[in-house]
Structure of FAD/FMN-dependent dehydrogenase:
Amino acid sequence: MTSTTPKLVDWDAIASELAGIEIIRESSQITKLSLDYYHFSPVLQQTLCDKRADLVVRPTNEAEVLRVAAVCVKYQVPLTVRGAGTGNYGQCIPLSGGIILDTTRMHGIRWIKPGLACVEPGVKLSAFDKQAREMGWELRMVPSTYRTATIGGFIGGGSGGIGSITYGQLRDRGNLHAVRVVTLEDEPRVLELRGDEVQKVNHAYGTNGIITELEIPLAPAYAWAEIIVVFDDFMTAARFGEALAHSDGLMKKLISIHAWPIPSYFTALKNYLPENKHCALLMIAESCLEPFQDLVRENGGQVTYQKPAQEASKGTSLVEFTWNHTTLHARSADPSLTYLQTFFFTLERVEHFYHHFGDEVLMHLEFLRTNGQVIPGGLQVVRYTTEERLNEIIHYHEEKGAFIANPHTYILEDGGMKTVNVEQLKFKEQIDPYGLLNPGKMRAWLER
């Protein structure tokens, strides 16, 4: 167990000062709450496996968060914010020990209006949607960890997901309206960021503020049917996915394309996934199913599974076989497998990489919208051998014009952004002058 918090910290004194707030000091619980799904990456497995907090706190409101922040500043103790811990890159793993602030008891839904809602960070995505759909609305996009992930965790560590085919990514203007954050200054404050200012904390791994409240835009809630279509040829499946993505008159929420043998890892769906067939896992508005069937016929696909929205809402959803859950199922079958996250931009690149790497890099596409354009993204399943070979695969993609959001690093800028976000750095310098928030994750801070 590794903790680099100064050994002179008086944890009993800290616990005493936080009396009235739930505190966890039992070692197995601390271990559980110090980790996420970092083990998807064999590189991160080695680096992060022994990282632990010294203490976990579970505040129930903003006033308690302010108390925790003040204590961390007083004792100069690192603070790492955590939602449900469903991230894959070690976003919420404390590199320097200290305190983990678990937000899951801050789960109030303040209000829901047509097209907009205000929530606390610990609200579960699925619980929110259940309530919002009663009014005809739902979240614009969700990760494949939809059932357990929290809204604050998704904003802090996520980037997009189911729904991104229509609404783009979380960082796109308009996908987050406002946040309230607690600072780690000598006298912690509550700040409200609105409009473009939210980008100071959006997808920042909790390195520059503790989110205590969010205003998020909503989407009209369609009755989403879940469908599996199979194809004899992978590129035919990919072209079908692109044609569906470009069919503006067909309302869709998910277009997930999988090359064989990935479908063989989906054991719960095996009756609908014939041997050696490539598949599309889809969510289509029930009102669009008739013209959708014409698109399937036009592309030589075969529908093997179709559930109306009411049925799809019960039991296991196709959502749980897409995006990063695809990797989860693959690794359940073969723990040596890992993954990449790729923006291909064109199907020509998809076809090139599909043939170039063959069985070493198995093709998994997710269609999404970015900068007003629909593109194929990828969460390919990789047969891992060595870190050196993994880096060769990444570099080859980049040399051929693909963009890799590297899931094998816990450094904020080295994963997706690739560049220093000056605005986020300046904000951190202002509100976290001692660098106590999730230390070691922001390269800009380490190199400033």
Notes: The mean pLDDT is 95. The chain is about 30% helix and 25% strand.
